[in-house]
Amino acid sequence: MQSTLHFYAALLLVSGCGNVGESPASFCDLCGTYGDISGVISSAEGSLSAMQGWVVTTLERDTGIARVEPISNNAGKFKFKKVRTNTAQTLALLSPNYRLQAVLSMPGTDSKNIRQWLRYNSTQLPKLINAGNILKFASTDGLEIQNYTVPSQQSDQELPTGVSKLGLTRGVRLTETARALHGELGAGSLGLLATTAKSASPDYNANGIVKWLDPYDGDKEALKLDLFATGETNPKQVFNNVIKYFTVQVSKTADETTQEKLTYINFSTQLLDGLSPTPTVFIRGSDALLGKSLLSLTDDGSGTKTYTGQAKVATTATINTFDVLFLELKFGSDAKAWMADFPWVFSLDLASLPAATDAVAKSAWDSGNLVVTNPFTASGSTDPLNSFTWTVSVYSDTTLIWTSPSKLFDATKTATNATITVPKAVFNFNSGVTYKYAVSLQSDDQIPGTPSYVIQSLKFAITAP
Known about the structure:
Blueprint: H1 2-11, E1 34-43, E2 55-60, E3 66-70, E4 77-84, E5 89-94, E6 100-104, E7 106-107, E8 113-115, E9 118-120, E10 128-131, E11 134-137, E12 143-145, E13 149-151, E14 243-254, E15 261-271, E16 280-284, H2 287-290, E17 294-296, E18 298-299, E19 306-312, E20 324-331, E21 338-345, E22 363-366, E23 369-373, E24 387-396, E25 399-403, E26 407-410, E27 419-422, E28 434-447, E29 450-456, E30 460-463
Parallel strand pairs: 1-10, 6-11, 14-29
Antiparallel strand pairs: 1-4, 2-3, 2-5, 5-6, 7-8, 8-13, 9-12, 10-11, 14-15, 15-19, 16-17, 16-20, 18-19, 20-21, 22-23, 23-27, 24-25, 24-26, 24-28, 28-29, 28-30
C-alpha cells in the first residue's frame, strides 16, 4: 500500500505535457501520466544472473511506443523511465541479440484464453519469470490487468497460439538458433477489440504476439496503402504518433571488382511537426548487427525532419526472423534523459535470400531490343522471394542511362513478367558498343512501396548488335 501511495505521489510530478525529462512541451502525442517502473526478472529455474544481457521491453497498446531496457547486472534488475501509466502496456523479452523470445502471459477469463495487457499502478512490478517462450508474474499484486484476451493453445493453456512461430520449446533454455516458420498467419479473429476499428487493434491476428513484434501480423487492407497514404487505416510502421514512419531496408550487393558480398541496413524516419524540443535520434539493436548498441541517425537536410543512417553488416553477423531493432528518440540529457522507442521486426532470414553473386546473366537480342530474363532462380514454393518486384538498369561505362518500370514476378504461378525488354533506343543504335546491365529484386514488406529487402546483381556486359 505504501509503494502504491508513493507511486501516485510521484505521478503528480509528471502528469500532462511538461518539460524535458517529463514529456515534451506542446506535443500531446506524448502527453499523459508518467512514472518510472522497476522490476526483477529470473529464469524459470530462479536464476537472476542468467538474465544478464537480455532485454526487457514494455509497449503501449494504442501506439506501439516502447521503453527498452537491457539487463546490465547479475541481479536481474531493470528500470523503465517515464512509462505512460494511463495506457495499457504489455511486456516482451528479447535475447542478447535482440531476437524476440518471450511474450507476456497472464491468466485469462477461462481456460481457453490468456490476457496480456495491464496498467502499471505501482513503481515496482511483481517478479517476472522467463518461462521459456512466455513471461509470467510471480504474483499479480499491484497490476491492473486489462480484460482483452487472445486464444491459448489447447495443449498448454498459458501459451498464446503465436509462440509456436518463435521455434521455441516450453521449459527448454532459449537458443539463438530459434527460427520462425515462414508465411503462416496465426489463428484467431481479426482483432482483440470487437468494437474497435482494425487500425487500432494491437494484434490483428490475435495470436498473442503484438503486431509491432510480429512480421506476419498485418491488416490486409492497410497493406494496400503506400507510405504516405492518409486515412483511418495505416500499415503498422506508419505510426502517425510522434513520428510519421520508420523504415528499415536490407540491401544485399557485391563489390564489382572483388565480388565480395556486402550487406547494408538503411534507416529512415520522419518526425512529426510540433515535436519540441527536437530529440536525438538513434537506432538501438544488437552489437553484432549494428557494430554498436546505438547507431546515430542524422538530419538529411531536406527541412522535413527526416533522419537517415546506414549500418554495414559484418560478414559474420546474421539477420533472422523475429530479430528486432528500435528507433530511439532521446529527450533531454544526463540523469534527466528519457527515451521513446519504436520497434521494427525482420520478417526473413538473411541467409534465405539469394546473394548478389547468385545471379546468372540471362539475356538475348531480339530485333535490336535486349530481352532480359530474371537471373535469380526461385527454388520452389518455400522460397521467401518467390514473389517480388524486379527492375533492369542499363549503364554506359559507369553512368546509369535507363531503368525499367518494375514488374511483379510470382514463381508460384505461370511465369508471367519473367522477362523485361530494354528498347533498342536505349542503346542509341550504337552497334558494337559495350554496355552493362544489372537486375534488382525488391520485396515489399512492412510498408508497401518501400522495399524492406533489395538484392542488386553484379553488372553484366553486353554488346549492342
